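To whoever is on call:

I kicked off a structure prediction for a single chain this morning and the downstream step that reads the tokens threw a length-mismatch warning. I double-checked the sequence; it's 177 residues and nothing unusual in it as far as I can see. Pasting both halves so you can look.
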Amino acid sequence: MPINNVSGTDNPYASTIYTAKSNEKNTLTITSYIQLLATQLQNQDMTNPMDNSEMMNQMTQMAMVQALSSMTETMTATSAMSTTTYVAGMVGKEVTVAVTTTGAGGSEILTGSKVGIIESVNLTGSSPTFRIKGDNTDHPLSHLLGIGDVTDSVDDSNSSGEDLGEDQDENQSEDVN
């Protein structure tokens, strides 16, 4: 019986990336650090003991890492709560939403905007989405352009970029004269 796939894929030249997820065995916690330090102290050479200042530096660094990790988790939770509160408070408000299409390479291209009243908010995904009345599209919060009808402002910002370039050319020609 012949073996068709030795590599486990249809394409033996396909590159695959494997990343280890964080778990108890591959992550250094404060508890594992203290165990490591205790083992180091037990097995140190008595004629050349560890320097106290070096040990204090290591403990201070570990405490700083632990504090930064805790602060990062707190900031992430606070940011998520703020976003959730903001989106939930938008129900019933008239908003302007960006309408996009997916271009080459997966980038989003702005094709227009629409105005509607937020009917519902979905908080179950990784980031909140909302729906406007009469539309079954789940819009991400990043597509929110403004509160109320700001389509004129969106159109003006697109045309003002072109006008700005013309104004700069006129100013440059005035400076030359």
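Update from on-call: the warning came from a stale cache, not from the record. Cleared it. Sanity check on the structure: The two ends are 86 Å apart (CA to CA).
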